[in-house]
Design a protein that fits this description.
Elements (H helix, E strand, L loop, with lengths): L4 H21 L4 H8 L2 H19 L11 H7 L3 H29 L3 H14 L1 H11 L16
Helix pairs in contact: 1-2, 1-5, 3-5, 5-6, 6-7
Keywords: Membrane, Transmembrane, Transmembrane helix
Organism: Hymenobacter sublimis
Protein name: ABA4-like family protein
């Protein structure tokens, strides 16, 4: 096994997809609670991201690219390791958003069939799913408490 950006990409994508599948197909299953809703899977992706972005900034390519302009961002992502880090960033944050949507929907009493399109759009197009969920949640549980402790049970 050789650790390459392509190999790690091929490992990270199915892991994230597993998390999304569990959120959509088995939201109340014990494994979903333990692996996804607990935040363990996004934290695993976050750890991998931290290692990749840290190693990028310690590498000779550290001065390549940046975040001050679109040209610098494009130059940064010429490095496959930085590109992989950026992809893991998307996977981690989108899955975290899907988890929040799931827990918030549970707390508000949003039917799962209404949450599923939001989750699918969040998985595929991040902010579009968030936008749809923000519309759905306007109609459910406007008077819920701020406590989410019961939502994870």
């Amino acid at each position: 096994m050789h650790l390459t950006p392509a190999f790690l990409f091929s490992v990270a994508n199915p892991l994230a997809l597993l998390g999304w599948a569990l959120l959509v197909l088995a939201p109340r299953w014990r494994l979903t609670q333990a692996v996804v809703l607990s935040g363990a899977l996004p934290l695993l992706l976050a750890g991998a991201y931290a290692l990749l972005i840290g190693s990028h900034y310690l590498s000779p390519q550290a001065g390549q690219g940046g975040f001050s302009s679109l040209t610098e961002v494009a130059a940064l992502f010429q490095d496959p390791w930085a590109l992989l880090a950026g992809w893991l960033h998307y996977l981690c944050f989108d899955l975290s958003l899907g988890i929040w949507e799931s827990l918030d929907a549970r707390r508000r009493g949003v039917p799962h069939w209404l949450l599923v399109p939001c989750l699918l759009l969040t998985f595929l197009f991040g902010p579009v799913g968030l936008l749809l969920y923000s519309l759905v949640r306007r109609f459910y549980g406007r008077h819920v408490s701020d406590s989410v402790s019961g939502a994870t049970r």
